[in-house]
């Protein structure tokens, strides 16, 4: 198994921001998502694993609202397998304050 970067770093907005879409005819196992607060104040964020055709909401949240202290990080270590067309979204309490990195395995 080779772990690859799934997406380039993305800054979250205050509405659900698309981070990654599983390519057509593929499956992916997300192995790690790192969330970084790039500001001097605490901020909150949430992550959603959204099935194809659905929208981000309470039924598909995988990291409920978490606080990251100023210049802090949060590592989400997971083994979520996502199917073709499934998407990973995130949102933050302050726009352009949180950067997200993701890695995983293409199955």
Describe this structure in words.
- By secondary structure, the chain is mainly β.
- It has one domain (4-106): Sandwich (Jelly Rolls), CATH 2.60.120.
- 0% of the residues lie in helices and 60% in strands.
- The protein is built from no helices and 8 strands.
- It has strands at 4-11, 17-21, 28-37, 43-50, 61-68, 73-82, 87-92, 98-106.
- A 4-stranded antiparallel sheet has the order 1-8-3-6, with no helix packed on it. Strands 2-7-4-5 form a 4-stranded antiparallel sheet, with no helix packed on it.
- The chain is globular, with a radius of gyration of 13 Å.
- It starts with a strand and ends with a strand.
- The model has no long low-confidence stretch (mean pLDDT 96).
Q: What percentage of residues falls in helices of 4 or more residues?
A: under 10%
The value of Rg in angstroms is 13 Å
What structural class do the secondary elements suggest?
Answer: mainly beta
Number of domains: 1
How is the main sheet built?
A: 4 strands, antiparallel
| CATH fold annotation | Jelly Rolls
Strand line-up across the major sheet: 1-8-3-6
- Per DSSP, what share of the residues sits in E-state strands of 2 or more residues? over 45%
Number of helices: 0
End-to-end Cα distance, whole Å, is 9 Å
**Average of pLDDT:** 96
Q: How many β strands by DSSP? A: 8
Uncertain runs: none
Give the class-level CATH name: Mainly Beta
Shape: globular
The secondary-structure element order is: EEEEEEEE
Please state the second-level CATH architecture.
Answer: Sandwich
